[in-house]
Amino acid sequence: MLLKILIADGKDGNLYDALSIAMNFLKNTGQMGDYSRVQSVAIDGILAARRKGVSHKIALANAAIVEVQNAFVQGMPSKQK
User: Around Cβ 70, how many Cβ atoms within 10 Å?
Assistant: First the structure.
């Protein structure tokens, strides 16, 4: 799944940076469940936003966070401890 974002990223690295920002935010706020599932949903959110013309890494990270929250947070147990 990470390969998708690396291929789509091109030369600027914004997509990978956005993924890193989003994953760090989700981890630090206790919203991280199964890392690979969360990462997959976050990547889908980033790529969907990119297809809509979003290019700034913070806006892309926000799209990823919203996608994960909509998909998981209400029913996902947080990993604390």
Answer: 11
pLDDT at 77 over 50: no
Question: CA dist 29 to 13, 46, 53, 77, Å?
Answer: 24, 19, 28, 13
Per-residue model confidence as pLDDT tens digits over 29-76: 998 888 999 999 999 999 999 999 999 999 999 999 999 999 986 655
C-alpha pair distances (Å), 30 with each of 18, 33, 34, 69, 74: 18, 8, 12, 12, 12
Residue with structure tokens 């209400």?
Answer: 74
pTM as predicted = 0.80
Residue for token pair 């690295």: 13
- Taking the mean position of all CA atoms in its chain, how far away is CA 52? 16
